[in-house]
């Protein structure tokens, strides 16, 4: 249970760093595909905020991807060490991905998008556009994620159970 929690926290940190690197430093609208259309419409195409900002952003994003990979590697390694079968791997992976999705809903959508000054700090053009009324703009995507994670975790658990048992 402890490793599952640590892995989930690693994913959450990686997810935040990915957003921070993309929004704060890279600032390329192509990376904001899941952002509300209203925000994308007012966000201008920006050049680097300062010399080296894109490099810093990409380093942060690469580190965040490594955190994702590390979280799953830790979960798999611990499963091998503790002789997990597919059901335990499934429970672990589903907990990790559902934890990430709930974090996305509560922290990214409800807090960062609707209640904080995170996006207007980097894009003043979004001031007055972002707010509590935006909560739930992507509920269809979240529902799809919750559904798709079940077979994805089952497949990953089966692969881990077969390969590492």
Labels describing this entry:
165 residues; mainly alpha
Could you walk me through the main structural features you see in this protein, from its secondary elements to its overall organization?
This protein has 165 residues and is mainly α. 72% of the residues lie in helices and 0% in strands. It has helices at 2-26, 37-42, 53-81, 86-113, 118-122, 139-164. The longest helix is centred in the middle third of the chain and has 29 residues, at 53-81. The chain is elongated and about 55 Å long. The two termini are 19 Å apart. The model has no long low-confidence stretch (mean pLDDT 88).
Task: Give a summary of the structure in a few sentences.
With 165 residues, the protein is an all-alpha fold.
What's the SSE blueprint?
Layout: H1 2-26, H2 37-42, H3 53-81, H4 86-113, H5 118-122, H6 139-164
Helix pairs in contact: 1-3, 1-4, 3-4, 4-6
Order of helices and strands: HHHHHH
Q: What is the tally of helical segments?
A: 6
SS-derived structural category: mainly alpha
Biggest sheet: strands, sense, closure? none
Kindly report the average pLDDT value: 88
Label the overall shape.
Answer: elongated
Fraction in helix: over 70%
Q: How many angstroms separate the termini?
A: 19 Å
Radius of gyration: 18 Å
Question: What percent of residues are in strands?
Answer: under 5%
- The beta-strand count equals 0
- Low-confidence spans: none
